[in-house]
Amino acid sequence: MSEIVVDGDPLPFVEGQTVAAALVAAGRVAWRTTRVGRRPRGVFCGIGVCFDCLVTVDGARGQRACLLPARPGMAVTTREDDDE
């Protein structure tokens, strides 16, 4: 099983999973909050339309975790407020 690094911690994933699928499989259903109200967000639509699942991957902000295939060693940062 391969691993990505999420917020500094290794997280296993199965080949073919998206970053969002790997997070949900590990029990993480929310990984960012909204600007107003600080409401938790994770996967909502699962097809890249809603932008609720945004993460930073290898320094690139605003990546949709539901569309991004997990790759061994990729660095994912979560819990960024919607400040853009």
Topology record:
Blueprint: E1 2-6, E2 9-13, H1 19-25, E3 32-33, E4 40-41, E5 54-57, E6 60-64, E7 75-77
Parallel strand pairs: 1-7
Antiparallel strand pairs: 1-2, 3-4, 5-6, 5-7
Please describe what this structure looks like.
The structure is a single chain. By secondary structure, the protein is mainly beta. 8% of the residues lie in helices and 31% in strands. It is built from one helix and seven strands, in the order ββαβββββ. It has one helix at residues 19-25, and strands spanning 2-6, 9-13, 32-33, 40-41, 54-57, 60-64, 75-77. The strands form two sheets. It has a five-stranded mixed beta sheet with strand order 2-1-7-5-6, covered by helices on one side. The protein has a two-stranded antiparallel ribbon with strand order 3-4.
Order of helices and strands: EEHEEEEE
Q: What's the number of extended β-strand segments?
A: 7
Q: Which descriptor suits the 3D outline? A: globular
Largest sheet: 5 strands, mixed
Rg over C-alpha atoms, rounded to the nearest angstrom:
12 Å
What distance lies between the first and last C-alpha atoms, to the nearest angstrom? 35 Å
How many helices in DSSP terms? 1
Beta-strand percentage?
25-35%
Provide the low-confidence segments as ranges. none
Structural class: mainly beta
Order of strands, widest sheet: 2-1-7-5-6
Mean pLDDT: 92
| Share of residues in helices | under 10%
